[in-house]
Specification:
The chain has a 4-stranded antiparallel sheet with strand order 2-1-4-3. 42% of the residues lie in helices and 15% in strands. By secondary structure, it is an alpha+beta fold. The protein has 2 domains: 31 residues, no CATH class; 121 residues, Haem-degrading domain (Beta-Lactamase).
Length: 176
């Protein structure tokens, strides 16, 4: 290519590139800059879940797991994140014990499904990973009765989607 033709081609590329760069839409606003009108996840605390009801929640989650031949660990905590009841199905992976408890504790402590943390991290809010007690995997669900948080369930042992199915089945005994 002749030097003059090369210079014209380069100048065209720079000019067109500059125009294309200016034509791009502005980056989306930082979601952390949004100021909600109301407090998110502002669920008041109720009377903490007792042992009998916690065991019923676990039984429903375990029944769902058995329908699919999944091996789960399931934990139920009270509204303060304290363990009330726990079950590990035969053959469930040992690591799922701590993870189920962690999911339940995070759901109770932060008054939201742990799926919210997973979604946040996937959308780029990696700062969530630096918040104490957060777990960015679905399967932790608050237990809300009459609009008040009484505890949470956490399930672990399978894929996060499987954990969530079992936790939702257990939570359905309380969350109407």
């Amino acid at each position: 290519m002749k030097p003059q033709a090369f210079a014209i081609a380069m100048l065209s590329a720079v000019l067109l590139g500059g125009v294309a760069a200016h034509a791009q839409p502005a980056p989306a606003a930082n979601p952390l800059d949004v100021i909600p009108d109301k407090m998110p996840f502002d669920v008041p605390y109720g009377t903490p879940i007792g042992l009998d009801r916690a065991q019923a929640v676990i039984a429903a989650a375990v029944a769902e797991a058995k329908k699919h031949d999944w091996k789960m660990s399931v934990a139920v905590v009270d509204s303060g994140g304290n363990l009330v009841a726990f079950a590990r199905m035969d053959g469930a992976m040992l690591a799922s014990v701590a993870v189920a408890e962690h999911k339940a504790r995070a759901a109770a402590t932060y008054r939201r499904e742990t799926k919210a943390f997973e979604n946040g991290v996937q959308s780029g809010l990696v700062l969530l990973l630096s918040v104490d007690g957060v777990i960015a995997a679905r399967g932790g669900i608050p237990l809300v009765e009459d609009g008040k948080l009484i505890g949470a369930i956490g399930a672990s042992g399978g894929a996060s989607s499987q954990d969530e199915v079992c936790a939702k089945a257990g939570a359905a005994t309380i969350n109407k």
